[in-house]
Amino acid sequence: MLTITLDEPGTFSAATTEEPTRKPGEALVRLHRLGVCGTDLHAFTGKQPFFDYPRILGHELGVEVLEIDDDAANNPRAVAVGDRCCIAPLLTCAHAGKPLCVACRRGKTNCCEHIAVLGVHTDGGMRERFVVPAANLYASETLSYDQLALVETLCIGGHAVDRAEIEKDEFALVIGAGPIGLTAVQFLQAAGAKVAVMDLSDERLGFCRDAAGVKHLVNPGKGDATEQLRGLKSDGASGPNGGSGDLPTAIFDATGHPGSMMGTFDLIAPGGRIVFIGLFPGEVTFNDPNFHKRECTLLASRNSKPSNFEKTIAMIEAGQIDTTPWITHRLPLAGVPDQFAGLAKQPGLIKAMIEA
Fold first, then answer.
1. Are residues 291 and 183 in the same domain?
2. First CA to last CA distance, the chain
3. Are residues 211 and 266 in the same domain?
4. Considering its fold, how many domains does the chain have in total?
5. Closest Cα partner for 316 from 125, 132, 157, 91?
6. CATH number, domain at 17?
7. d(Cα 233, Cα 284) in Å, to the nearest integer?
8. Residues near 237 by Cβ (< 8 Å), separated by ≥ 6?
9. pLDDT tens, residue by residue, 153-209
10. What span, in angstroms and rounded, lies between the C-alpha atoms of 319 and 308?
11. Helix segments in 222-278, DSSP class H
């Protein structure tokens, strides 16, 4: 079968490998769609932390089940052969056969002390067929493989919004209008928040406006960001701050850029919450008196939980989330070695989808 491996930064190779062997509790699946994530792009350029080479990438997956056990112990969600599924890519203490760490005991499997993520810490789905724990499969009778491959991405934003405990009509700012920022926008809108998006790219801000219906847009390259946020208006009416000039009470930074992340401490309203979705391999610093006088809450958001997968699938099935406009580029699995390098330079790129 065809397997694509990232041998080292900047170099993919294609090889014919042996068929995988399934063990009890595992499912054999066939790849249909694989979403290209920022993690994959960073791994290709050698800028992904916690990463070793060689590695088979791929954790945003839409797959078909080929083989699976039929007993509840080894197949807890009663997934059947032929089902279309997405995959939760987190392997935790339970999968490793280790005693549960403190995070797993408290239901925080997304930050398990022994976590391994498919396509990052262990080999992922950039191959025609592979095996995964059956417990990590989430099936849908109605979602397409395109939609299923985007579920994991959406769950990242869903978990971040859950972390902030958003209230209806709350003024929330998303910084970074890439795919992860868009996922936060979707769940903030579903929660009834008044959403603004900040980015340096007018093209990406335009996508947020046209594809996600975001009316309140800020480009910090065109003036002071704080003043833009205080003065947001829409169609002559008061903006998300109700015309009060208030700053947002919740900020979600999806940039992974240190300057942007540290700048959030000057953009948050007193008593507000800052959620870092993106990360970078370095230090975050802030002015302590500024932090204290606003009594801010700083939250990290890592990965997602099983409940996020169930909720996200249900919302897409109900039409509450539409990811159709997100897929702007496609390439075949066999074309990855030659075409992947040019993806990041493609005009209008939001989400690339690999087809198998």
1. yes
2. 12
3. yes
4. 2
5. 157
6. 3.90.180.10
7. 32
8. none
9. 999 999 999 999 999 999 999 999 999 999 999 999 999 999 999 999 999 999 999
10. 16
11. 225-230, 258-263
